[in-house]
Amino acid sequence: MQGTLPPLMPALARFAPHALAGLSCVLAALGCQPKIGDPCSRAIDCGLRVVRQCDLSNKNRDPDNKGECTLENCSYGVCPKNSTCVKVYATEFLSVACDPLTEDQSDDQATDACEPNEVCLPEGLCADEIRARTSCRRTCDSDSDCRDNYHCVSTGIDGVYVAPDPENPTVQHSAKICVPRP
Fold first, then answer.
1. Which of 65, 78, 133, 153 has the highest count of CB atoms within 10 angstroms of its CB?
2. 71-104 burial, b if ≥16 CB within 10 A, otherwise e?
3. Residue-level pLDDT, tens digit, the chain, 182 residues
4. Could you give the CA distance from residue 127 to residue 157 in angstroms, rounded to a whole number?
5. Phi, psi at residue 65, to the nearest 5°?
């Protein structure tokens, strides 16, 4: 058996550097996952992990006709670095007015304009809580932090809010996120 090992050792020595180089390339590719908000055309563009999706809902506003990498159905505090979980209500279809200071309160000043499945948004409109969508969005300080044709806007208006903290649901947090230009 010792007579067969020496010829095998040179073959392994020749193969090992190639295998190591291939493994290094695979590990490097896995380490460079796209970030939340990066452009995409399909989910695979957002990484090999199937967790992230490619949101194509705003691709018509993008000059390259691309969507953006997101993480859907998130909750407060679980998004990757440089992103935050936002909750979006479909405000363009809302028409029932409410008073956010008195809606569903327990005192004699209480109002009840919204349906049981709705919440009164700070802008004074009832919004369907069940149809609201949460997703991780890229955070920013200024427009230069966003990709081309996107700008940096504050949450807390127009039906876009930081997802509530389950530990403190009445506190409304705010953030600045990248969104497509209108």
1. 153
2. beebebeebeeebbbbbbbeeeebeeebeeeebe
3. 555 555 555 554 555 555 444 444 444 444 567 899 999 999 899 988 658 899 998 888 888 899 999 999 999 999 999 999 999 998 777 889 999 888 877 777 788 888 988 988 888 999 998 889 999 999 999 999 999 889 999 999 888 999 989 898 878 899 999 998 88
4. 13
5. 60, 40
Handedness of CA 21, 25, 26, 32 (dihedral sign): positive
Tokens of 41: 């055309």
Question: Any bridge partners for residue 61, and if so which?
Answer: none
The amino acid at residue 85 is: C
User: Longest C-alpha distance within the chain, in Å?
Assistant: 96
Token pair of 5, please? 């090992």
Gyration radius of the chain over CA positions: 24
